[in-house]
């Protein structure tokens, strides 16, 4: 992994990102697109050479990354990411794996660390503000996913009926047959 290979689903950050809310901006942008991975502890020097500065593998460092993302995004991304240590060349780096928000959220995730809350999206190796068109596209995708989920839930219910048999007709009430007592 090197910083030159940053993509839509991979971003390398220096350790200093843990002193800033901008980590949440990248995380929210990835969540609003296809998810991805952020690795912290990698950078380049003034000559363009890769620098790997690892962590001491302390829980406080993981917790700091979690806090930054949790405190600077709305709706909360707490269920969309996992933070863990990964070892590269004998050095511990922080790895943040991020899921797609469209699968879990009602609206795109907004970065709240700037002057006003704003939704970002990953475009190649950068995090850019979402346009109205992109937000509408996100909502359409979300609607399709919900519709698909409901359809598959219905199909599973039908399969359950096929396997266990349909309820007997006398168990199904007819409002016209009910009497007032």
UniProtKB/TrEMBL annotation:
<dbReference type="InterPro" id="IPR007421">
    <property type="entry name" value="Schlafen_AlbA_2_dom"/>
</dbReference>
<dbReference type="InterPro" id="IPR038461">
    <property type="entry name" value="Schlafen_AlbA_2_dom_sf"/>
</dbReference>
<dbReference type="GO" id="GO:0005524">
    <property type="term" value="F:ATP binding"/>
</dbReference>
<feature type="domain" description="Schlafen AlbA-2">
    <location>
        <begin position="6"/>
        <end position="131"/>
    </location>
</feature>
<dbReference type="Pfam" id="PF04326">
    <property type="entry name" value="SLFN_AlbA_2"/>
</dbReference>
<feature type="compositionally biased region" description="Basic residues">
    <location>
        <begin position="134"/>
        <end position="144"/>
    </location>
</feature>
<feature type="region of interest" description="Disordered">
    <location>
        <begin position="108"/>
        <end position="144"/>
    </location>
</feature>
<feature type="region of interest" description="Disordered">
    <location>
        <begin position="162"/>
        <end position="181"/>
    </location>
</feature>
<protein>
    <submittedName>
        <fullName>Schlafen-like putative transcriptional regulator containing HTH and ATP-binding domain</fullName>
    </submittedName>
</protein>
């Amino acid at each position: 992994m090197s910083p030159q290979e940053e993509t839509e689903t991979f971003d390398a950050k220096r350790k200093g990102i843990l002193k800033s809310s901008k980590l949440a901006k990248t995380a929210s942008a990835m969540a609003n697109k296809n998810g991805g991975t952020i690795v912290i502890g990698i950078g380049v020097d003034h000559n363009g050479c890769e620098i790997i500065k690892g962590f001491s593998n302390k829980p406080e460092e993981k917790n700091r990354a979690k806090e930054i993302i949790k405190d600077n995004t709305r709706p909360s991304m707490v269920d969309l990411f996992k933070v863990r240590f990964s070892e590269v060349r004998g050095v511990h780096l922080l790895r943040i794996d991020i899921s797609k928000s469209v699968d879990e959220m009602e609206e795109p995730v907004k970065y709240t660390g700037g002057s006003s809350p704003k939704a970002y999206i990953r475009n190649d190796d950068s995090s850019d503000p979402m346009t109205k068109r992109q937000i509408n596209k996100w909502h359409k995708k979300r609607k399709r996913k919900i519709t698909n989920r409901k359809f598959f839930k219905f199909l599973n219910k039908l399969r359950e009926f096929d396997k266990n048999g349909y309820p007997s007709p006398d168990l199904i009430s007819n409002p016209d047959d009910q009497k007032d007592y």
